Amino acid sequence: MATDRDTVLEAAVGVLSRRPSAHLDEIARAAGISRATLHRIFPGRDALIREVGLLGLRRFAAALDTAEVEQGDAEAALRRLVDASVPDAMLCAFLAGENQLYEHDDINDLWEVQIARLHTLFLRGQQQGVFRIELSAAWLSEAFFDLVAGVGWSIQDGRLAPRDAAFSLTELFLGGALRRPDVRTAAPTDGTTAAGTTTLSTTTPSTSAHRPDTDKP
Q1: What is the per-residue pLDDT for 204?
Q2: How many CB atoms lie within 10 A of CB 150?
Q3: What is the pLDDT along the chain (217 residues), one digit of tens a residue?
Q4: DSSP the chain
Q5: 98 and 148 in contact (C-beta within 8 Å)?
Q6: Less CB within 10 Å around the terminal CB: N or C of the chain?
Q7: With the C-alpha atoms ordered 76, 61, 217, 156, is the resulting torsion angle positive or negative?
Q8: How far apart are CA 101 and CA 107, in angstroms?
């Protein structure tokens, strides 16, 4: 019977996200296949890691599409994105923690496209008066993605029940990102804040060094 590549990749991420140095034998066992079969599918460890990263980026891109993040009220779009991305939170955790991935130009290019879409969502939310403007859209984008990754690690370690994941992520993130009730008004059309001193940046940040070189939580 043919082995499904995505099934193998999903088994691999469950191992590699916590033990980046795990042997291929461990990954093969987790996928329920022999090491020889694993080698027939992926010629080596680097190829396997790269394919896991590409799968994660494809899934996150699909979540952005499903959530229609470019459409309508930004808070509603973010809530849709939570629902769409939580099922693949473990893949997001892998993307957040595996710095080796970003040695590949194609991985970096795909990542920049996805993080730019998040940046645009948060910028639109700031302009709508939904999200806090003293926090940059770039930071909100990074913080959101890393929280999705944290959900993946927490579910894997049994610290968070899958059924509670979307609610927990939404409440934690929006609790810090939403504008305060006393200042939650439409952003001025000239791009300034209520005090007239700060403008919202419309520049998409460079993301070539977006992954910190620190240990995963």
Answers
A1: 44
A2: 21
A3: 346 788 899 889 888 877 777 888 999 999 999 999 998 999 888 889 899 999 999 999 999 999 999 999 999 999 999 999 999 999 999 888 887 787 788 888 999 999 999 999 999 999 999 999 999 999 999 999 999 999 999 998 899 999 999 999 999 999 999 997 764 444 433 444 433 334 444 444 444 334 444 344 4
A4: -PPPHHHHHHHHHHHHTT-TT--HHHHHHHHTS-HHHHHHHSSSHHHHHHHHHHHHHHHHHHHHHHHTTTSS-HHHHHHHHHHHHGGGHHHHHHHHH-GGGGGSHHHHHHHHHHHHHHHHHHHHHHHTT-B-SSS-HHHHHHHHHHHHHHHHHHHHTTSS-HHHHHHHHHHHHHHHHBPPTTT-SPPPTTSB-TTS--B---PPPP-TT-S-SS---
A5: no
A6: N
A7: positive
A8: 7
Nearest residue to 31 via CA among 57, 5, 2: 5
Residue type, 74: A
Tokens linked to 2: 């043919």
